[in-house]
Design a protein that fits this description.
The chain is built from five helices and six strands. By secondary structure, the chain is α+β, with helices and mostly antiparallel strands.
């Protein structure tokens, strides 16, 4: 680094004050340097960023404002904000979206699927390998997970007339079913009252 710096300084000393024609490979070392032949080049100072340059002054803008506890326009904003808590379900005979609430008879079953905070059944589809591998997953199973596995296998085998591969994870309380059977499993869970 020091060698490079010294060579740059030596180069600068040779060409300091020379005219532009010297730098254009028309060197004439016998030329006498006079005040008229000297050219001075000013390089601008480099600042760390534009805000720190002397050309920018901090402009202080002051706005007149008034603090209001709850303005009348706030009601229009509140309508657009998401709910802090998911509201409790209002019991109806039939919901227009096709939603089926959890029934109380499901407590008597040897297994249980608790709903999530959006009141959905915890049955999901996992896609992997660019969508080529599809696995239906039942999560948050409470109770006899092996009995639930046997019932799911029997249900899908009778409906699709083929062998269904499943994998039971007792520690994570999940059952994985090879294939896309989410709709069938959700219909079965709704019919059981889960």
């Amino acid at each position: 680094m020091a060698t490079v710096l010294r060579s740059q300084c030596a180069f600068a000393r040779v060409f300091v004050g020379k005219t532009g024609r010297i730098l254009n490979n028309s060197t004439d070392l016998g030329t006498k340097i006079t005040q008229e032949t000297q050219s001075v080049t000013f390089y601008p100072r480099k600042y760390s960023n534009y805000a720190h340059s002397p050309f920018v002054h901090k402009i202080k803008e002051q706005y007149e404002f008034e603090v209001v506890k709850k303005p009348p326009e706030w009601t229009y904003v509140e309508r657009l904000l998401p709910f802090e808590n998911i509201p409790q379900l209002k019991p109806k005979d039939k919901y227009p979206s096709g939603f089926v609430p959890q029934k109380e008879e499901s407590i008597n079953l040897p297994y249980f699927l608790p709903r999530n905070k959006y009141h959905d059944v915890p049955i999901y589809l996992q896609l992997s390998h660019r969508g080529q591998r599809k696995i239906s997953e039942i999560r948050k199973i409470e109770g006899d997970i092996w009995l639930l596995n046997d019932e799911v296998k029997a249900l899908l085998k009778t409906k699709h007339q083929k062998y269904i591969e499943t994998r039971v994870h007792e520690l994570t309380r999940t059952i994985e079913v090879k294939g896309d059977y989410v709709n069938d499993l959700k219909e079965w869970a709704y019919s059981k009252g889960l």
